[in-house]
Amino acid sequence: MTVETVSLSYRELAERLRVSPDAARMKAKRKAKAGLWRIIPGNHPLDRVTIELPLTDLITSEHAGGEQEEAITVVRPSKTKNPQPEQSQERVDELTVFIEGLLAAQSRAEKLTEQLQEAHAAHARTISQLHAQINALAADVRAEKEAHLGTAIDLGQQLRAAHNALHQDGLARVAAETREKAVTAELERALEAATQLQATIDHLQRPWWKKLAKG
């Protein structure tokens, strides 16, 4: 059978039991030592401490009323060199709760530190991987650039060679045309000279009487 429980702070427990806060604190610690109630400290020493107790115990204590207050109210002398045993035990209990809360806070801080260190290491690994990828991409870009640059140089050399060949071919064509014109002119002059020579030969071969008759 499940026992229904309720969680209260020291102040709330004192209000429900109609006792002083010190009396509620001492009762909660006695019940916790007996294993009947449970004191749950916060993650920080200044956090609220919670008391978990069966609802039936709370109802029974509420019915008891102020009778318990007189039984468990602590009388605190203003000045004393030898505190009462109950006061010393209460101080020890308070320190125990404080230390437990401090240890819990320290444990949580250690866990958070470990998580932070793991996150930092993961972040560092991610940055390292990104740097490696960037370096690889940069190397690929450089290789591609060098390949394109080599192709551009080859094409430029081929273009210059073709241009030079075309230029040389044009010069050769112009020279051939010039030589052709010169040969043609020389041939025309030779033909003209040959014609004149043939006319002279014909004139010299004519009989003398024809020359006289014509003359």
Summarize the topology.
Layout: E1 5-9, H1 10-17, H2 21-33, E2 38-40, E3 50-54, H3 55-64, H4 66-72, H5 85-205, H6 208-214
Antiparallel strand pairs: 1-3, 2-3
Folded structure, characterized:
Helices cover 77% and strands 6% of the residues.
Q: Which features would summarize this protein structure in a list?
A:
77% helix, 215 residues, single chain, 3-stranded antiparallel β-sheet, mainly alpha, Arc Repressor Mutant, subunit A
**CATH topology-level fold name of the domain at 5-75:** Arc Repressor Mutant, subunit A
Helix proportion range = over 70%
CATH class of the domain at 5-75: Mainly Alpha
Could you tell me the mean pLDDT? Answer: 78
What is the end-to-end distance?
A: 171 Å
CATH architecture term of the domain at 5-75: Orthogonal Bundle
Provide the succession of SSEs: EHHEEHHHH
The side-by-side strand order for the widest beta sheet comes to 1-3-2
Summarize this entry quickly.
The chain has 215 residues and is mainly alpha-helical.
